[in-house]
Write a structure and sequence with these properties.
The chain is mainly α and 329 residues long. The chain has helices at residues 8-27, 29-60, 64-95, 100-130, 137-140, 145-158, 161-191, 208-218, 221-233, 238-248, 251-264, 272-284, 289-299, 306-316; strands at residues 268-269, 303-304.
Amino acid sequence: MDSLPINGLDIAVIVVLLVSALLAFMRGFVHEILSIGAWVGAVLCAMYGLPYVRPFANDLIPFTWAADGAAAIALFLIGLLVLSLITNTLSKSVKASALNALDRSLGFLFGLARAAVILAIMLMVGDWLMGPDKRPDWMQSAKTLPLIQITADGIKQIIPDQLMAAEDATKDAAGTAKGVIELKDTFDRLTQPTPESGDGAPDGAYSDKERRDMERLLQGTSIEDAGKALMDSGLLTPQQQQAAQRLMNDPALQARARAEAQKMLSGGKIDPAKAAQARELLAKSGLDPSIQVQIEQMISSGSIDPSKAQEIQRLLQSQALPQSGAAPQ
């Protein structure tokens, strides 16, 4: 397998395409289209026919939910049976005519298109669950991935914007909820009374492990949003509110943010992504808002010359960090 120019995913994709195309070739284009129409029609039959048969189903079954379910299933099966018989009749008529060759050829193409759409939807679902940046190596190296990606992009183009916005909102809400849970667990752990510190950290101060945990939680905009949501949620006790405030103002995290900002703003071009990252670091640095505004104005031009870089470094070092364990203002 390693010596082949394709991997296992490519082979699976080819098999799916061929099986779908051959099945559609044998059945014919008319049969495939009418089969899809039969399933859609059966669903519509169940949806629109249920209100008319519900009274009869309730007379036979005492439970309303069971009566509705049984009636809907019965309507669906009856509709599918009737429409399938019509489909087979029309399909046989086409196969017996001079259009048989054209019907099979179009069916083969339809089978390929159907398989491509199914594979693209599977890719979209996988990206939605894991994220495009977390695809495994065997998927990234597949020769057929670009073709599937093109199909997936085409499907996204025809999906209404409202559905795409709802998908993004669902993912954002899930990320925020996860961040809230993580922050709540951290605050619970930090505010539980402990007999003594096992790593020599003074009372009221964070240990190195706690700082690493807090720094991990504070990385990324979604986690920051989760922290704000948690502060506004009313889930925290007064003691945990104080711990949350100390968490956001911890000197070790502020010093780390300032050091990264100094390194990033030492000179050169500043693209929009880099500028946005610099603003996030400044927001975490604990600097006075007026100092942050001055630095942001200097980087807004898109480049930092030596004189600007020197002034930025001076501003970043102009305000001392608060003492560890100091009460928040």
